[in-house]
């Protein structure tokens, strides 16, 4: 099939390789600096925030497309409109339900799904009013992507600053205010093959930096949860997707596990970022990218063979004062516990860089991916953590 990725996002090489290895012709429309031109079959520069720009670029190919996908959170609704105008399949879900956190949580509340959202604010005054009497709250843009602009606020005096930072990233200027929920954080990856036919593919452990920004710093797949907790997470994901009207595609849902069960933080109608699709395939055999394409065109895929019992990623970040030292060197990569577990290593910053406390994914300094037995993966993570504090929402 000729598959158009209308909005690629960053670090999506695994997705491109997955589709091309499956025999598909892959085209990309995005900013030119974000397109790995040697890993696709066709590309055009285009404004991923403009239906007209994407449509013009897609039509310039001189041939027809068989499906349109989007892996850039900010462009998912736009890409589906491009697909509609081209008359080709794309992930099917109601516009806005998965992009706008205000719309999303309003719909969930209507359907009786537990949600932490207190409301949506357009002004500092509205933000303060929503947060009053609720203790710590989480302030976030309603329509941004990843964890950018998200902040935990303990002191009411910090609400104005948090609101302005979130509003600056929100295209609509609207800011969601959530009550702060304690509990370990997990993500759930699922595919909806057809309306009412959702299959959960993986549950992943999520580790964060300390508040107030809580940036994802590590993922481990599969999550170390009990059978009961796994069932609760799976049931909550299916219920949320049904409530939001997902018809075909994949999702990335984020939960906090509380004493009364899982509480949905948010859910995206696209494959996860943060290299989670690669971790899922390594540890389970499921490929989220080929599953998404199959669902979009009305087919199904099967689980492949897992390469390992467990997989993990560790993102490297700064603390605002300590010069960055590469956690993995050729010496440590050549000896246990890394020699048999390290699958990929990337650095985005040189040694000696003093980077700020991370406020979003853009502040990551690199990452390492591991796979092996649970014990081997845990040992590899410990070797590169170097005593760094991690947060599970406790």
Provide an overview of this structure:
The protein is globular and about 55 Å long. It is built from eleven helices and 16 strands. A hairpin with a 2-residue loop joins β9 (184-194) and β10 (197-208). 28% of the residues lie in helices and 26% in strands. The longest helix is centred in the middle third of the chain and has 18 residues, at 227-244. The mean pLDDT is 94. The strands form three sheets. Strands 13-12-9-10-11-14-16-15 form an eight-stranded antiparallel beta sheet, with helices on both faces. The protein has a four-stranded parallel beta sheet with strand order 3-2-1-4, sandwiched between helices. The protein is α+β, with helices and mostly antiparallel strands. α2 packs across α3 (76-86).
Care to count the β-strands? Answer: 16
Strand count, sense and barrel status of the largest sheet are: 8 strands, antiparallel
How do the SSEs run, as a string of H and E? EHEEHEHHEHEEHEEEEHEEHHEHEEH
Helix content: 25-40%
Sequence stretches where pLDDT stays below 50 over 5 or more residues: none
Structural class: alpha+beta
What's the mean pLDDT score? 94
Number of helices: 11
- Give me the oligomer status: single chain
What share of the residues does DSSP label as strand, in percent? Answer: 25-35%
């Amino acid at each position: 099939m000729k598959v158009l990725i209308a909005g690629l996002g960053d670090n999506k090489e695994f997705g491109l390789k997955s589709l091309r290895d499956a025999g598909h012709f892959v085209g990309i429309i995005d900013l030119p600096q974000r397109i790995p031109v040697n890993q696709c079959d066709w590309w055009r520069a285009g404004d991923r925030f403009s239906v007209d720009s994407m449509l013009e670029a897609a039509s310039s190919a001189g041939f027809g497309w068989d499906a349109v996908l989007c892996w850039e959170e900010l462009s998912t609704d736009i890409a589906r409109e491009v697909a509609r105008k081209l008359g080709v399949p794309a992930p099917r879900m109601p516009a806005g339900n998965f992009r706008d956190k205000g719309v999303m949580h309003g719909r969930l509340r209507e359907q009786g799904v537990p949600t932490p959202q207190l409301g949506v604010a357009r002004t500092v005054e509205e933000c303060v009013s929503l947060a009053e009497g609720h203790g710590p709250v989480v302030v976030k843009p309603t329509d941004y992507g990843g964890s950018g602009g998200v902040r935990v606020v303990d002191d009411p005096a910090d609400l104005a600053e948090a609101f302005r930072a979130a509003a600056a990233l929100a295209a609509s200027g609207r800011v969601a205010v959530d009550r702060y929920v304690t509990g370990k954080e997990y993500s759930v990856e699922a595919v909806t093959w057809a309306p009412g036919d959702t299959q959960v593919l993986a549950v992943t452990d999520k580790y964060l930096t300390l508040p107030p920004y809580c940036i994802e710093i590590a993922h481990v797949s599969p999550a170390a949860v009990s059978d009961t907790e796994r069932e609760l997470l799976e049931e909550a994901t299916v219920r949320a997707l049904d409530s939001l009207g997902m018809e075909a595609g994949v999702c990335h849902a984020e939960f906090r596990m509380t004493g009364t069960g899982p509480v949905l933080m948010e859910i995206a109608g696209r494959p996860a970022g943060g290299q989670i699709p690669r971790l899922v395939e390594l540890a389970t055999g499921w490929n989220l990218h080929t599953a998404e394409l199959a669902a979009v065109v009305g087919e199904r895929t099967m689980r492949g063979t897992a390469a390992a019992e467990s997989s993990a990623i560790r993102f490297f970040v700064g603390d605002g004062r300590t010069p960055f030292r590469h956690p993995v060197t050729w010496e440590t990569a050549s000896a246990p516990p890394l020699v048999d577990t390290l699958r990929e290593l990337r650095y985005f910053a040189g040694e000696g860089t003093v980077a700020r406390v991370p406020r979003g994914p853009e502040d990551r300094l690199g990452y390492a991916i591991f796979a092996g037995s649970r014990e081997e993966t845990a040992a590899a993570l410990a070797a590169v953590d170097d005593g760094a504090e991690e947060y599970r929402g406790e």
